[in-house]
Write a structure and sequence with these properties.
GO terms for molecular function: metallocarboxypeptidase activity; zinc ion binding. The protein is an alpha+beta fold. The protein is 31% helix and 16% strand. Zinc ion binds next to loops. The site of zinc ion (ZN) has 5 residues, from loops.
């Protein structure tokens, strides 16, 4: 199936007044006799992607399938369970009728004319999603790569908050380390077919994924006594690749890597059926890749029992015993894998249960939420829902604009903007829960929410990487790359979601000040919630980027840790949303990291976070925005003073660590903020892998040619290490200058304190020497 056409066929089922009008018009004049499906299609980005000569160099995209619409396509449109199709047909009919009445005025899709058709035509407002379905509408069914098998069942989990805090697991010291035996000694009870790994790349997508009847992957039970668990993961965000039964109640599990890569296993989400109540089961995931994990410090996996949900209204909960995270001892010299093992007792016989790394939040969950907003007569007045772009697979990336209507143009122009986004990393569903909390609050009728909508324009991209979320990736898009390393990209067709986001923010910045940019993530090594920001270069605003995080820590002291925040701009993070937006001029530009585990703070100490905790952070962001913008600057100034004191303490600590006295001979110009901070590596760190996988062949060819050409005028290139060192040095120099100035203002050059800037050149020499040796 030609992907562009599939998209078009799908879109056609939404009655577009202009196309309907043209369709009838052409038919009337006899220019067009075919059925709607054969209308010529406009170019979508996939169309462009697939046929652009730039991408045909490798010869791999040469095949062009017949442009025949898929006859099954319409059947595959999913209708939201809340809306019956007769209701939808009525609405469609009403839309068409109203179109007929207004059609004499329609002259173009974009230009609006007044009643007489001539005077001062102006551009139409961008069209809202669901405009024609003001009270309901079809959800866009998720599009999958055509290799992916997808089961037809719709999964739904209830939202629930455990009445008691869920404490971290306390190791007893007697946890078993199961030896991995593999399929040679066990029985494969579940295995995905044809999984695209490294070396292949995304070609086209389809609603419902792979064509035809999907294989029954689970084993067939031999009767009621057969205790084999039946596994499944071929649903949205699921990612189990293989299950091997190695003992009656013991299973070894392999996770699917991110599509078109052979990396990034971390997120997991799968289903088991045919459970027994009075047995202890053991699961061991055998192909994790991170050396460190929150599972080593008390995090428990999540379990969901369908019977408990139905009968007791109980949802996802932390379960598991004998939890261990450990390195798999392989002596074959290949890549090291890490294992997560846990035991579990199921609450019921013959139950359907799910396991997950974190509370799932799928693309369909988001669409249901957005549909409820669009259908809410109050919320839809101040929340406009639009398509930012389509992902590689053709899924809609939504953009929400939330603001109260302004009374005057001056009032509208004076509003500052706030940009929030989530799920660039699809396996970090934490982001969606914080986003949901934010949206719940900002769309509410609370006076604070109303005030915020009065003074701000909120631009929200709730799911930056829908394809990744749908297929159950942990980190990448279907380009096989971490999008949060590509915010500087010029490859619009390969990285549409972030290209359009950056472009939207660029235009927003031309129009108004963007006070805050925050991208919501999950963190796999540290507990609590914290922010990564960017040390700013402007002396006038020294430490200002830390005020918002400090205020947030005061508003959410049980969850948010200012101590874990970091403001270092590392070279490997240059392509992240946070750094790119900061370089575009947004001073308060952040990555919000929220743990997969829980809190180590205050009343919530040693307990896991619930979805309610994460949602509350969305509210705290709003609350903190009000503090941050309070016309009475007392809170702001107080925080600034506190930050300066904190920094001073940090500097003292560093001096002590270095074993040097504070009254060294020298100058302040040799201390930098980056030296005081550790690096931010963790779940927010992965190196850019470069070009999207489908362009690698093309790039190789070009590079070969370039090399041939350049051979004669080859000059000495610096090694990567040298370049990094040079970069670090430049960074230090910049920050040193800043610190010198700011600290001298803070303490006064003439006070003769031990922090006198003119007294310490040798310190940094020592430090730099140390660093060079590392
Ligand atoms: Zn992340």
């Amino acid at each position: 199936m030609f992907p562009a056409l599939e998209t078009e066929v799908k879109q056609e089922s939404l009655p577009d007044p202009y196309e309907d009008f043209m369709y009838h018009h052409l038919q009337y004049y006899g220019y067009f006799k075919g059925h709607r499906g054969s209308l010529p299609t406009s170019a979508t980005h996939q169309h462009v992607w697939k046929n652009n000569p730039r991408y045909l160099l490798s010869g791999s995209f040469g095949e062009r399938q017949g442009m025949v619409p898929d006859p099954l396509q319409k059947e595959k449109l999913l209708w939201p369970t809340c809306i019956s199709s007769p209701v939808h047909r009525q609405i469609e009919a009403v839309s068409r009728d109203s179109l007929m009445l207004s059609s004499p005025l329609l002259k173009s899709r974009q230009l609006l004319h007044d009643e007489f058709g001539e005077v001062s035509p102006c551009l139409r407002e961008p069209r809202d999603l669901f405009t024609f379905f003001s009270s309901s509408g079809p959800l866009q069914a998720p599009r999958w790569p055509i290799e992916c098998e997808v089961i037809k069942e719709n999964l739904h989990h209830i939202e629930w908050v455990p009445p008691q805090p869920e404490y971290f697991y306390q190791p007893t010291g007697n946890e078993k380390l199961p030896e991995i035996v593999g399929e040679e000694k066990g029985t494969v009870v579940f295995q995905l077919d044809s999984v695209p790994t490294g070396g292949s790349y995304f070609t086209s997508s389809r609603v419902g994924g792979k064509r035809g009847i999907i294989k029954e992957l689970a084993v067939t039970l031999q009767g009621p006594e057969d205790k084999t668990l039946l596994f499944e993961s071929r649903f949205e965000s699921g990612n189990l690749q293989k299950a091997v039964r190695v003992d009656t109640y013991e299973y070894e599990l392999t996770l699917r890597t991110d599509l078109y890569t052979n990396k990034h296993t971390q997120w997991f989400y799968f289903r088991v059926q045919n459970t027994r109540k009075d047995a202890t089961y053991r699961f061991t995931i055998v192909n994790l890749l991170k050396p460190k994990s929150l599972y080593t410090i008390g995090m428990k996996p999540l379990m969901y029992s369908q019977l408990d949900a139905k009968t007791h209204n109980i949802g996802w909960r932390r379960e598991g015993n004998e939890i261990r995270y450990y390195k798999n001892n392989r002596d074959d010299g290949q890549q090291a894998f890490y294992c997560l093992t846990w035991t579990i007792q199921f609450p019921h016989d013959q139950d359907t249960c799910f396991f997950a790394h974190f509370y799932p939040y799928t693309y369909t969950d988001l669409q249901c939420y957005l549909l409820s907003v669009a259908n809410n007569p109050v919320q839809s007045r101040f929340c406009k829902l639009r398509t930012l772009c389509r992902s590689l697979a053709g899924n809609t990336v939504y953009l929400l604009t939330i603001t109260n209507p302004s009374r005057t143009p001056q009032e509208a122009a004076a509003k500052k903007a706030v940009v929030l986004s989530a799920r660039v990393h699809p396996g970090e569903s934490n982001g969606s829960w914080i986003m949901k909390g934010f949206l719940d609050f900002i769309l509410s009728n609370s006076p604070d929410a109303q005030l915020l909508r009065d003074i701000f324009v909120f631009k929200v991209v709730p799911m930056l990487n829908p394809d990744g979320v749908i297929v159950g990736n942990y980190r990448c898009s279907l380009a096989g790359r971490d999008l949060n390393r590509h915010y500087k990209t010029i490859l619009k067709e390969s990285f549409p979601c972030i290209w359009y986001t950056r472009n939207m923010i660029k235009r927003l910045l031309e129009e108004r000040e963007v006070l805050l940019y925050c991208d919501f993530h999950g963190h796999s090594r540290k507990n609590n919630i914290f922010l990564y920001g960017c040390n700013n270069n402007d002396r006038k605003y020294w430490l200002h980027e830390r005020v918002f995080p400090l205020m947030l820590s005061k508003n959410a002291p049980d969850k948010f840790s200012f101590h874990s925040c970091n403001f270092k701009v590392q070279k490997c993070k240059e392509g992240t949303g946070r750094v790119v937006m900061w370089r575009m001029g947004i001073l308060n530009s952040y990555t919000m990291e929220s743990t997969f585990g829980g809190s180590t703070l205050g009343n919530k100490r040693d307990t896991h976070f619930t979805t309610e905790d994460l949602k509350s952070l969305g509210y705290h962001v709003c609350d903190t925005l009000l503090d941050f913008c309070d016309p009475d600057r007392t809170k702001f100034m107080q925080c600034l003073t506190e930050l300066k004191e904190l920094l001073q303490q940090e500097i003292h600590k560093k001096f002590n660590e270095l074993g040097q006295d504070m009254d060294l001979e020298g100058s302040w110009s040799d201390i930098c903020l980056s030296d005081i901070e550790s690096s931010t590596s963790g779940s927010d760190s992965s190196l850019s892998d470069g070009l999207p996988v489908h362009l690698l062949n093309v790039a190789d060819e070009l590079n070969q040619k370039k090399k041939m050409y350049k051979k004669k005028k080859k000059k000495l290139l610096q090694t990567r290490k040298q370049r990094n060192e040079q970069y670090q040095k430049n960074n230090w120099m910049q920050e040193l200058k800043l610190t010198e100035d700011a600290l001298s203002r803070l303490h006064g050059r003439d006070k003769g304190t031990s922090l006198d800037p003119s007294k310490m050149p040798s310190l940094i020499l020592t430090k730099n020497k140390e660093r060079m040796q590392v």
